[in-house]
Amino acid sequence: MDDIDRIAEAGVDVGDDRQGRLLGDRWTANAALKPMVRFRTFNLLEDPSALGSFDVVLCRNVLIYFDQATKTKILDRIAARLPGDGTLYLGGSETVFGITERFEPVPGERGIYQLTRVPAPARAAA
Ligand SMILES: C[S@@+](CC[C@H](N)C(=O)[O-])C[C@H]1O[C@@H](n2cnc3c(N)ncnc32)[C@H](O)[C@@H]1O
């Protein structure tokens, strides 16, 4: 029995949604989601292409360890692993500005970024 099970047994279930339940101050995945969850360590200095793609990447308060060129490389690699509607979360005091042009802020959301929307080229006059 892990901590989450103990908390659940104690009846501290304070909420739920489609993917999991908030038990005390921790979330637990629901039964449908659990088989899809894998935990593994990964060094951001390595090429993530073998990991596949991600709809959401949480990379909060990690870039602080790296120099500018390395931050650019890491963010560009993450961008390459996201679909067009993918989302990147950085720490509230972190930014992509001056580091990469692959991401732009999600309007009105601090620390949340989407792939930079490239405006459609102007249609050639007929
Ligand atoms: C300040 S903690 C932030 C933890 C968490 N993301 C948060 O916001 O609470 C920085 C994390 O970056 C991780 N980290 C440092 N260098 C890394 C690397 N090269 N690859 C992957 N993670 C790294 C550390 O292991 C540590 O967990």
Give the CA-CA distance, first to last residue. Answer: 69 Å
Helix/strand order, N-terminal first: HEEEEHEEE
Q: How many strand elements?
A: 7
Overall mean pLDDT score?
Answer: 84
Percent helix range? 10-25%
Helix/strand/pairing category: alpha+beta
Q: Count up the helices.
A: 2
- Total domains: 2
Contiguous uncertain segments of 5+ residues: 3-14
For the largest beta-sheet, the strand count, sense and barrel status come to:
4 strands, mixed
- Measured on Cα atoms, how large is the radius of gyration? 19 Å
Cofactors and ligands = S-adenosylmethionine
Strand order of the largest sheet: 4-5-7-6
| Residues in β-strands, percent | 15-25%
Question: What is the global morphology?
Answer: globular
Features:
single chain; alpha+beta; three-stranded antiparallel β-sheet; 2 helices; 7 strands; 16% helix; disordered N terminus; binds S-adenosylmethionine
Q: How would you portray this structure in words?
A:
This protein is of the alpha+beta class and 126 residues long. The chain has two domains: 3-36, no CATH class; 48-115, no CATH class. The protein contains two helices and seven strands, in the order αββββαβββ. It has helices at 3-9, 68-80; strands at 13-16, 20-23, 26-29, 56-58, 87-89, 103-105, 112-115. The protein has a four-stranded mixed sheet. It has a three-stranded antiparallel sheet with strand order 1-2-3, with helices on one face. Strand 1 (13-16) and strand 2 (20-23) form a beta hairpin. It is globular and about 45 Å long. It starts with a helix and ends in an 11-residue tail after the last strand. The chain binds S-adenosylmethionine.
